Amino acid sequence: MDYMDRHTISITLSLLILVFFIALFWNRIFISVGSGEAGVKWSRFNGTRLDRVYDEGLHILWPWDKMYLYSTRLQTLNSRLNILTCQGLTIGVDYAVRFYAVKDAIPIIHETLGPHYPQTFVTPEVESASMSVIGHYSPEQLYRMATLVIQSSIKYYLNKQMLSHNIVLDDYLIKRITLPKAIADSIEKKMVAEQLSLEFDFRLAIAKKEKKRKAIEAQGIKLFEETANIPILKWKGLEVTERFAASENAKIIIMGSRANELPLLLNAEGGMNNATDKNK
Question: pLDDT-derived band of residue 101, with 50, 70 and 90 as boundaries?
């Protein structure tokens, strides 16, 4: 107690200085790693600590050290890019890219790329891959092609580049490709003309098949007339006469005397009910 009494002022001042120090550097001493985040510790004396990733929760550091926080969640970047095609025309591409950092490799990412890697690394890589792949196509090819083909090519290139830096590409999506209005109108007119040409070819093919069918039918009629020794028109007339004769209504059938004359049908009262014309 005598010691405390003798050093009361010194102890009080020391406690006040300690409290002031803690209050002043509170945010640098007590670090909270939030949900979906991971921390990387940088020591002023030893540099980046590569053997540990700080998980969610509260961590205590020396005030001269620093904690860098990285998101471990799936991140999305949306952007628009103007690309020069192989024909020298500029097109606009709206795209979105989804990616995330490999959690265990976050200290390496911090050391090699830094906390702003989405802007300093991911965006330039995506733009470079987009220009390399899309720039090889002409506007007409881009207009006709499915975006899935282009997306697959870009993803194949990006996967290797990004994974080598411990970043996983989840997906690359093309939302829209905008062509110059004059080029788009020209391509649409050309496509309409092609469809009309295909329609004409289809109709022509049908007409040729119909012509062939009629030729075969004519050959069959000729063969029938030669075999039966009776004109096909006479034969049809006889078939019609047979059907009318089988009905319940009374009728009179007058048969022609010559081979090329068709039967004449009269009703029972003597009037002409339904007759076929004679073949002159």
Answer: very high
pLDDT for 238 equals: 65
Listed residue (48, 168, 34, 155) closest to 102, CA to CA: 168
Q: What is the rounded distance in angstroms from the CA atom of residue 223 to the CA atom of residue 106?
A: 89
Q: Which residues contact 148 (CB under 8 A, 6 or more apart)?
A: none
Of 1-10, 135-144, 218-227, 229-238, minimum mean pLDDT range? 1-10
Rg of the chain over Cα atoms, rounded to whole angstroms, equals 46
Query: 39 and 69 in contact (C-beta within 8 Å)?
Result: yes
Structure-token pair, residue 84: 């020069």
Residue 139 is inside which H or E element, if any?
helix 139-144
Q: Scanning the structure block, which residue is given the tokens 């998980």?
A: 55
pLDDT digits (tens, 9 = 90+) for 18-34: 776 666 666 778 888 98
Map tokens 């540990």 to a residue: 52
Class of domain 75-179: alpha beta
Is pLDDT larger for residue 179 or for residue 69?
Answer: 69
Residue 118 DSSP symbol: I
pTM, two decimals, is 0.59
For the chain, give the number of residues: 280
Question: Is-contact 236 279, C-beta < 8 A?
Answer: no
| Widest Cα–Cα separation across the chain | 158
Give the number of C-alpha atoms closer than 13 A to the C-alpha of residue 226, restricted to the C-beta side: 6
- pLDDT surpassing 60 at residue 206: yes
∠ Cα 247 249 250 (to 5°): 115
Name the token pair of 99: 């990616």
Amino acid at 214: K
What confidence tens digit (pLDDT) does each residue in 242-269 have?
676 666 665 555 555 555 555 555 554 5
Cite the residue boundaries of each domain of the chain with CATH code 3.30.479.30.
75-179
